[in-house]
Amino acid sequence: MSQSILPSGSRRVIATGFDPQTQPIVQSDALLALAPASLEADFICHAFSCPVRWQVEPVFTQSFQADTVQFDNVIQAAVLFPLVQRPSGLHVLFTRRASHLYDHAGQISFPGGRIEATDRDAVAAALRETQEEIGVAPEFIRLIGTQPGFLTSTRFTMKPIIGLIRPGFTITPDKTEVAEVFEVPLSVLMDTRLHRLHQANLPDGGHRYYFSITWQSYFIWGATAALIRNFYHYLAAAEDQADKRVK
Length: 247
What we know:
Blueprint: E1 25-27, H1 41-47, E2 75-86, E3 89-97, E4 108-109, E5 112-114, H2 122-134, E6 141-146, E7 150-151, E8 156-165, E9 178-185, H3 186-189, E10 195-201, E11 207-215, E12 218-221, H4 223-246
Parallel strand pairs: 2-8
Antiparallel strand pairs: 1-10, 2-3, 2-5, 3-4, 3-9, 6-8, 7-8, 10-11, 11-12
C-alpha cells in the first residue's frame, strides 16, 4: 500500500476539526504474537546489541528514510522511547501534550523535541528534552539503542532513542508543555490485534495513512503509533532470528 503524506513543499497541517478517531479503518490484521520472553528487558537489550535483519513498517517505508534521505523544509527532532520495569512487566511511558501548544497539541507522544544546535546528537537531544519535559535526569536512563528516524506529516524528522528508565526516578512534568504523564504495558502496545490503520481524506484531495492504538481512555496515533509499530517489527525479527539460532 502506498502512502502520500510527504509533499515536497511546506509542512502539511491537518485542518481544524479533524478527528483522528473517526477516520475509516482500512486494515486491522493481526501479525504474529510475540513470545512473553521477547517483551522482557534482557531480550530487548540483547536484540539491540547485535545485528538484526529486519524491515521497517511497509506502509511507511518512505517516511522511515529520514536517516538517509535529505528532505526539504524539515525540523530535526528526537524522542525517548522510555521503558519502565514494573512487577507486571515492562511498561512504556508517554506524555499528553498541553492543549495550547502549536505542534501536536493534546496528542499523546514520547518525551522529546527539537534537536538544538547545542545538542551533541539525537541522543543528547532526547535526554535533554526528557529531563526538561518530565524531570527524569539522564543518569536514570540506560540507553539501549536507536531506531530509524521517521518523517511526520507536519515535517518533523523524529529519531527514536530506546532507553530503560532505572529505578528511583521521579516524574516532575513541565506543565507548560505536558498535561499528563502515564504508562501503558508494553504487552498491550505489541499486541497487533490492537493496531488499526486509518485512511484520512484531506481537503486538498490528498490522503494520509496512520496507525492508532486504543488503550483505556487513551488514543495513540500518528507518528507515535508508527514508532510503536516499528518497534514491534524489530522485536519480531529479533525473536525469529533467535529462534533460528536455537534450531
